[in-house]
Amino acid sequence: MRSSKLVAVAVLALCGAIPGGPARADDVTVKGSDTMVLLGQKWAEVYMASNPGTKIQVTGGGSGTGIAALANGTTDVAESSRPMKPQETEAAESKTGGKVKVLPVALDALSIYVAKSNPVEELSIPQLRKIYTGAVGNWKEVGGPDRPINLYSRENNSGTYVFFKEHVLSNDDFDPSAQTLPGTAAVVNAVAKDPDAIGYGGIAYAEGVKRLRVKKDDQAPAVEGTLENAQNGSYGLSRELYFFFVPGRNAAADRFAEWTVSPDGQKVVKDVGYYPLPNAK
Amino acid sequence: MSSSPAGRRTATTAVASAASESRRRAARRAERLFGAVVRTAAFAAILAIVLIFVFVGREALPLLRQGQAPGHGEEIVSWASLAGPTTYPDRPPRYVWQPVSAVPKYNLLPLVVGTLKTTLVAILFAGPLAVLAAILTSEFAPRWVSQVVKPTIELLAGIPSVVLGFFALMVLATWLQGLLGVRYRLNALTAGIGLGLAVIPIIYTVAEDALAAVPRSYREASYALGASRWETAVRIVVPAALPGIFAGVALGFGRAVGETMIVLMASGNAALATWPLTDSVRTLSATIAAELGEVVFGGPHYRVLFLLGVLLFVFTFAVNLAGELTVRRLRERLGGRA
What we know:
heterodimer, A: alpha/beta, D-Maltodextrin-Binding Protein, domain 2, 10 helices, 12 strands, 37% helix, elongated, B: mainly alpha, MetI-like fold, 2 domains
């Protein structure tokens, strides 16, 4: 599954490198965040089933890659798990001559996993930062047993890795002892087997592990990563997932993007395991 | 290659004694054609290797020239950041491999250490086992035992490395952790033993062939002088086959350095530059496999990954060269004595 996706990405990357004519009017290309590839593909599948004239291609590569492609005109829609930086918006608008529309399309609540046998129930974001940068190396320093903390992380091509690094570590470096695993499922599997483990990943994967409540800072209340808390913003590790596009450049792409925030589109969000937007109609 | 003139000579005499001039000419033409095909194939293989090296090197070259990759000029990978360690204002310096970061860290040492650690474990595990098994099957075991052991070990070579990796990840890791009580399930030892499983058949096959190639007359001479089976094996046959055995170990080493799937799955992939074998490690090959798929084409990270490829290439080339030279020296020394 993963490798076939990689091959697809590679092939598409090669095709992108070869200058070709503009795509057919109803072709839509979507590129960007790896966190959103599954979501984007599912959206495309459902949308194409009811709109047989439209062909949608969804590839990953990372949020930054998608945004760069939007500026270069090689994709119609950029998927991103982070907001655009001002200079990215500027670059995209000066190159395409249009205005970039920022469309939040779904919510994700990043979860912190520990083994079920671990008595720790909650951690604050500053504590998580100390744990993952190596400043805190024992569970007893955060209210657990006198055991070393084993860190599990993601490969650095993961959007989740980048989000965690930015929002939890404030761009500091992971402790080198953090084991990097190839997917959220692998992190969950490793944490389930290791009583001293801590890991992070998407909300939809937490089988056989305990999800911790998260405090925004040491004084804040501990909050569970539920749909409600992600939607009202009280969960410190929730994030918006975005579509960026230039309206008016490709009508089919505009229609597709607007459809993702419709009730039908938001139902797909739930099916894939993310949270729909709070104001979803 | 070296057998082709001899083959040509025997073929020619056989034909000359039996057949007419035209048939001889046709045979010669077929011979020449065959020779050309073989030569082309051999040169194609060499050309492929050269081309691969040129390609990999060319992708890494802009980095070595300290230039900027076009279009991604904001980041330069300096020699200091490749050599490391990374320094911090609030904690001691350490070696960090975190290429995706606000400030990317490309310290290579942890990856080199990881590769060496897993390879060392693999060779220390697989080498003795494979060589002893080869001595057993060629010198001591009854015929039926050899006929079971030999194909079984060679069957190991047919197991896809992803299956060995899965075995190391799920079974071996749990088993070793239970046995040694180590902190990390996935570590250099687990990955190294998993790698060893892939290396055993390589060393075994080459060593077995080398032992079998020792002339029967050596053994008979030894027995005739009153030596026992043990004495003959240890003092005559093994020394005579030593160049071949060594070549097997060198080949196994090369395989262990480059093998990717097993270490990717079973090493834990934490880029640590530490001594203990029970720490997690990240190898050069696993790093390339994990990161190249989604890296920005032509960016600094992409180039550093190709630099890792060059390192791997140089690494295996150096090992093979050293192995070849040692084998030649051993052969000269032993040849002189025999």
